[in-house]
UniProtKB/TrEMBL annotation:
It comes from Sporolactobacillus inulinus. The lineage of its organism: Bacteria, Bacillati, Bacillota, Bacilli, Bacillales. One of its GO terms (biological process) is carbohydrate metabolic process. This is Glucosamine-6-phosphate deaminase. Transmembrane segments: none annotated. Coiled coil: none annotated. Pathway: Amino-sugar metabolism; N-acetylneuraminate degradation; D-fructose 6-phosphate from N-acetylneuraminate: step 5/5.
Amino acid sequence: MDKGMAVLKDGTIAGSVLKMKDSLRNILAFTDATLADVVQMGAINPALQCGVDRKGSLEAGKDADFIVLNEKNELVLTVCRARLPIKKKRWIELKIVSVTDNQEMSKKAAGIIRELVLRKPDAVLGLATGGTPEGTYQQLVKDHQENGTSYRSIRTVNLDEYAGIDPKDPNSYYAYMKQHFFDHVDLPDGQYFLPNGLDTSKEACMRYDALIDSLGGVDLQLLGIGRNGHIGFNEPGSSLTLGTHVVKLTESTRHANARYFGSIEDVPTEAVTMGIGTILKSRKILLIASGEEKADALGKLVLANRADSRFPASALTQHKNVIIIADEAALSQTKVSKD
């Protein structure tokens, strides 16, 4: 790369004005591309992708020092004189399934989870709590009782738990999962895991991530979305690369959860949550949303073209396998129509 070119497996990449390494460095510095994106860019031969010779020349009028295309040969990024990109669009399109109401959302989500359980009986499921997934768990329990779908070899890991709450507390997410799912299927004790709300040390958080890795990683992560765009308990401003960690809950999140505690004063101020870095390691992500109160957040997610820590759910635009199932009310601020 010292003379404006790099020899890779797919041939030679030629640079016209800047050295290749400088182009990549500037893309990293001046655009929203991540380090992983930049490494991938460096493995693409722009000339060959454009169907021109390897000297780096482009068609007349194509004034560019460096271009990047995706696997469909669609233009993703053009850098001129290594300054800000003059054209860029999201690499990955989110798959959105529009349904009529919460019940249909729950059935479709449960169907996706059931299909995975049948196809891979020892799968690792990432589970969520709150009001939105309750219907999904009801459908899974119903299917287990009526069709015998077995969870005997399944392992599960939950997104989060309130800090300072004993698992035996009825407001704990451990109690929630027992009430809505664990106690109604044949999932053995010792095969479901949640963060420990009584041990919020950095070491405990690291052990939870290590546990997930030891299970082989999450095959499918179920998510909801908060009104402020939080996923798990990753609030606005959270780093998009963190593993499991302790987070201070925003007032809006505490207000949203006050219905479970009786008053906002009783809602914990902190929680232990999988970080977005952990969530994005999942092989597949299933986000469900229902109701007008989620419309603003879902509208922002659908329009997002980059990951922004001010809106944590935007990190999902960087994942290659995301399915969003949402009802018409939740999608009311988008142009997505019912399938």
